[in-house]
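Working notes for the structural subgroup meeting. M.R. asked for a predicted model of this chain before we commit to crystallization trials. I am recording the input and output together here so anyone reviewing the notebook later can reproduce the run.

Input as submitted:
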Amino acid sequence: MTPTLWAAYHGNLESLRLIVSRGGDPDKCDIWGNTPLHLAASNGHLHCLSFLVSFGANIWCLDNDYHTPLDMAAMKGHMECVRYLDSIAAKQSSLNPKLVGKLKDKAFREAERRIRECAKMQRKHHERMERRYRRELAERSDALSFSSLTSSTLSRRLQHLALGSPLPYSQATLHGTARGKAKIQRKLERRKQGGDGTFKISEDGRKSVRSLSGLQLGSDVMFVRQGTYANPKEWG
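Returned structure, recorded in C-alpha coordinate form:
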Protein backbone atom coordinates (compact mmCIF):
# COMPACT_ATOMS: atom_id res chain seq x y z
CA MET A 1 0.00 0.00 0.00
CA THR A 2 1.41 3.35 -1.08
CA PRO A 3 1.20 6.47 1.13
CA THR A 4 -1.57 7.85 -1.09
CA LEU A 5 -3.61 4.67 -0.73
CA TRP A 6 -3.00 4.62 3.03
CA ALA A 7 -4.18 8.20 3.51
CA ALA A 8 -7.30 7.65 1.35
CA TYR A 9 -8.15 4.40 3.13
CA HIS A 10 -8.00 6.02 6.59
CA GLY A 11 -9.63 9.29 5.43
CA ASN A 12 -6.67 11.43 6.48
CA LEU A 13 -7.25 14.47 4.28
CA GLU A 14 -4.28 16.50 5.51
CA SER A 15 -1.86 13.66 4.78
CA LEU A 16 -3.54 13.05 1.43
CA ARG A 17 -3.14 16.70 0.42
CA LEU A 18 0.50 16.71 1.47
CA ILE A 19 1.33 13.47 -0.34
CA VAL A 20 -0.44 14.37 -3.59
CA SER A 21 1.02 17.90 -3.61
CA ARG A 22 4.51 16.36 -3.37
CA GLY A 23 4.06 13.98 -6.29
CA GLY A 24 1.76 11.24 -5.07
CA ASP A 25 -0.21 9.67 -7.93
CA PRO A 26 -4.00 9.88 -7.25
CA ASP A 27 -4.62 7.09 -9.79
CA LYS A 28 -2.02 4.66 -8.39
CA CYS A 29 -3.60 1.31 -7.55
CA ASP A 30 -2.58 -1.83 -5.71
CA ILE A 31 -2.34 -5.35 -7.13
CA TRP A 32 -6.12 -5.76 -6.87
CA GLY A 33 -6.84 -2.56 -8.80
CA ASN A 34 -7.93 -0.47 -5.80
CA THR A 35 -7.19 3.23 -6.40
CA PRO A 36 -7.41 5.97 -3.74
CA LEU A 37 -10.91 6.73 -5.09
CA HIS A 38 -11.95 3.07 -4.52
CA LEU A 39 -10.65 3.07 -0.95
CA ALA A 40 -12.14 6.46 -0.03
CA ALA A 41 -15.54 5.54 -1.54
CA SER A 42 -15.52 2.11 0.11
CA ASN A 43 -14.95 3.69 3.54
CA GLY A 44 -17.27 6.66 3.02
CA HIS A 45 -14.63 9.43 3.12
CA LEU A 46 -16.51 12.08 1.12
CA HIS A 47 -13.99 14.86 1.82
CA CYS A 48 -11.16 12.69 0.41
CA LEU A 49 -13.30 11.86 -2.65
CA SER A 50 -13.97 15.53 -3.44
CA PHE A 51 -10.26 16.38 -3.08
CA LEU A 52 -9.14 13.54 -5.37
CA VAL A 53 -11.74 14.43 -8.03
CA SER A 54 -10.74 18.09 -7.96
CA PHE A 55 -7.10 17.01 -8.32
CA GLY A 56 -7.97 15.12 -11.54
CA ALA A 57 -8.40 11.49 -10.41
CA ASN A 58 -10.22 9.25 -12.91
CA ILE A 59 -13.67 8.38 -11.56
CA TRP A 60 -14.08 5.73 -14.31
CA CYS A 61 -11.17 3.58 -13.07
CA LEU A 62 -11.87 -0.13 -12.58
CA ASP A 63 -10.54 -2.66 -10.09
CA ASN A 64 -9.86 -6.32 -10.93
CA ASP A 65 -13.59 -7.06 -10.57
CA TYR A 66 -14.46 -4.19 -12.96
CA HIS A 67 -15.95 -2.09 -10.17
CA THR A 68 -15.84 1.72 -10.29
CA PRO A 69 -15.55 3.87 -7.14
CA LEU A 70 -19.27 4.58 -7.55
CA ASP A 71 -19.95 0.82 -7.42
CA MET A 72 -17.88 0.44 -4.26
CA ALA A 73 -19.70 3.25 -2.49
CA ALA A 74 -23.06 1.75 -3.47
CA MET A 75 -22.05 -1.75 -2.26
CA LYS A 76 -20.96 -0.33 1.11
CA GLY A 77 -24.08 1.81 1.47
CA HIS A 78 -22.36 5.20 1.55
CA MET A 79 -25.12 7.12 -0.20
CA GLU A 80 -23.56 10.57 0.13
CA CYS A 81 -20.52 9.28 -1.74
CA VAL A 82 -22.81 7.65 -4.31
CA ARG A 83 -24.71 10.87 -4.99
CA TYR A 84 -21.50 12.89 -5.24
CA LEU A 85 -19.79 10.50 -7.67
CA ASP A 86 -22.96 10.14 -9.73
CA SER A 87 -23.23 13.91 -10.12
CA ILE A 88 -19.57 14.13 -11.20
CA ALA A 89 -20.04 11.29 -13.72
CA ALA A 90 -23.14 12.96 -15.19
CA LYS A 91 -21.37 16.31 -15.46
CA GLN A 92 -18.32 14.82 -17.23
CA SER A 93 -20.49 12.80 -19.62
CA SER A 94 -22.51 15.86 -20.59
CA LEU A 95 -19.52 18.19 -20.98
CA ASN A 96 -17.10 15.93 -22.85
CA PRO A 97 -18.50 12.53 -23.86
CA LYS A 98 -15.47 11.71 -26.07
CA LEU A 99 -13.08 12.24 -23.15
CA VAL A 100 -15.28 10.06 -20.97
CA GLY A 101 -15.19 7.32 -23.63
CA LYS A 102 -11.39 7.48 -23.73
CA LEU A 103 -11.16 7.38 -19.93
CA LYS A 104 -13.45 4.34 -19.79
CA ASP A 105 -11.47 2.57 -22.51
CA LYS A 106 -8.18 3.33 -20.77
CA ALA A 107 -9.54 2.08 -17.47
CA PHE A 108 -10.73 -1.15 -19.08
CA ARG A 109 -7.37 -1.85 -20.80
CA GLU A 110 -5.48 -1.19 -17.58
CA ALA A 111 -7.81 -3.50 -15.70
CA GLU A 112 -7.26 -6.26 -18.29
CA ARG A 113 -3.48 -5.87 -18.09
CA ARG A 114 -3.53 -5.80 -14.30
CA ILE A 115 -5.71 -8.91 -14.12
CA ARG A 116 -3.22 -10.82 -16.32
CA GLU A 117 -0.29 -9.65 -14.19
CA CYS A 118 -2.12 -10.58 -11.01
CA ALA A 119 -2.90 -14.04 -12.36
CA LYS A 120 0.75 -14.46 -13.36
CA MET A 121 1.94 -13.43 -9.90
CA GLN A 122 -0.51 -15.81 -8.26
CA ARG A 123 0.65 -18.64 -10.51
CA LYS A 124 4.32 -17.96 -9.67
CA HIS A 125 3.49 -17.82 -5.98
CA HIS A 126 1.61 -21.10 -6.23
CA GLU A 127 4.54 -22.75 -8.05
CA ARG A 128 6.99 -21.40 -5.47
CA MET A 129 4.89 -22.72 -2.61
CA GLU A 130 4.53 -26.07 -4.39
CA ARG A 131 8.31 -26.38 -4.78
CA ARG A 132 8.79 -25.45 -1.16
CA TYR A 133 6.22 -28.04 -0.07
CA ARG A 134 7.86 -30.75 -2.17
CA ARG A 135 11.31 -29.86 -0.84
CA GLU A 136 10.11 -30.00 2.78
CA LEU A 137 8.32 -33.27 2.05
CA ALA A 138 11.50 -34.75 0.53
CA GLU A 139 13.61 -33.57 3.48
CA ARG A 140 11.11 -35.06 5.92
CA SER A 141 11.12 -38.34 3.97
CA ASP A 142 14.93 -38.41 3.93
CA ALA A 143 15.03 -37.73 7.67
CA LEU A 144 12.59 -40.59 8.33
CA SER A 145 14.56 -42.94 6.07
CA PHE A 146 17.82 -42.02 7.79
CA SER A 147 16.27 -42.51 11.20
CA SER A 148 14.89 -45.91 10.18
CA LEU A 149 18.24 -46.94 8.69
CA THR A 150 20.12 -45.79 11.79
CA SER A 151 17.74 -47.68 14.07
CA SER A 152 18.02 -50.91 12.06
CA THR A 153 21.81 -50.62 11.85
CA LEU A 154 22.07 -50.00 15.58
CA SER A 155 19.81 -52.96 16.30
CA ARG A 156 21.96 -55.25 14.16
CA ARG A 157 25.14 -54.04 15.83
CA LEU A 158 23.70 -54.56 19.30
CA GLN A 159 22.54 -58.04 18.33
CA HIS A 160 25.99 -58.86 16.95
CA LEU A 161 27.67 -57.61 20.12
CA ALA A 162 25.24 -59.62 22.24
CA LEU A 163 26.08 -62.82 20.32
CA GLY A 164 29.85 -62.32 20.47
CA SER A 165 30.15 -60.76 23.89
CA PRO A 166 31.78 -62.50 26.91
CA LEU A 167 29.89 -63.78 29.91
CA PRO A 168 27.81 -61.40 31.99
CA TYR A 169 29.44 -59.67 34.92
CA SER A 170 27.86 -61.94 37.53
CA GLN A 171 28.97 -65.13 35.76
CA ALA A 172 32.41 -63.68 35.04
CA THR A 173 32.76 -62.81 38.75
CA LEU A 174 31.78 -66.37 39.81
CA HIS A 175 34.27 -67.89 37.38
CA GLY A 176 37.00 -65.52 38.56
CA THR A 177 36.30 -66.44 42.19
CA ALA A 178 36.42 -70.16 41.36
CA ARG A 179 39.73 -69.75 39.54
CA GLY A 180 41.16 -67.82 42.52
CA LYS A 181 40.08 -70.54 44.94
CA ALA A 182 41.62 -73.24 42.74
CA LYS A 183 44.89 -71.32 42.56
CA ILE A 184 45.04 -70.96 46.36
CA GLN A 185 44.26 -74.66 46.76
CA ARG A 186 47.12 -75.60 44.44
CA LYS A 187 49.53 -73.41 46.44
CA LEU A 188 48.48 -75.07 49.69
CA GLU A 189 49.02 -78.52 48.18
CA ARG A 190 52.50 -77.57 46.99
CA ARG A 191 53.37 -76.35 50.50
CA LYS A 192 52.16 -79.61 52.01
CA GLN A 193 54.23 -81.59 49.55
CA GLY A 194 57.33 -79.49 50.29
CA GLY A 195 57.36 -80.34 54.04
CA ASP A 196 55.17 -81.12 57.05
CA GLY A 197 57.11 -79.11 59.70
CA THR A 198 59.12 -82.12 61.01
CA PHE A 199 62.88 -82.63 61.44
CA LYS A 200 64.77 -85.85 60.99
CA ILE A 201 67.21 -86.53 63.89
CA SER A 202 69.78 -89.27 63.93
CA GLU A 203 70.22 -91.09 67.28
CA ASP A 204 73.02 -93.65 67.61
CA GLY A 205 72.96 -94.53 63.99
CA ARG A 206 69.22 -95.05 64.09
CA LYS A 207 66.81 -92.68 62.43
CA SER A 208 63.63 -91.52 64.05
CA VAL A 209 61.29 -88.61 63.44
CA ARG A 210 60.42 -86.11 66.11
CA SER A 211 57.82 -83.43 65.57
CA LEU A 212 59.16 -80.11 66.81
CA SER A 213 57.57 -76.70 66.91
CA GLY A 214 59.79 -73.89 65.68
CA LEU A 215 61.13 -71.97 62.71
CA GLN A 216 62.94 -73.99 60.08
CA LEU A 217 65.58 -71.96 58.17
CA GLY A 218 67.05 -74.94 56.35
CA SER A 219 67.25 -78.68 56.31
CA ASP A 220 69.91 -78.77 59.06
CA VAL A 221 69.33 -75.64 61.16
CA MET A 222 66.32 -74.57 63.12
CA PHE A 223 65.28 -72.23 65.93
CA VAL A 224 62.89 -73.46 68.57
CA ARG A 225 61.12 -71.88 71.48
CA GLN A 226 62.34 -72.68 74.94
CA GLY A 227 60.80 -75.80 76.40
CA THR A 228 59.91 -77.40 73.07
CA TYR A 229 63.15 -79.41 72.70
CA ALA A 230 64.37 -81.76 75.46
CA ASN A 231 68.00 -82.05 76.63
CA PRO A 232 69.85 -84.98 75.02
CA LYS A 233 70.69 -86.18 78.51
CA GLU A 234 66.99 -86.64 79.14
CA TRP A 235 66.38 -88.81 76.09
CA GLY A 236 67.31 -92.05 77.78
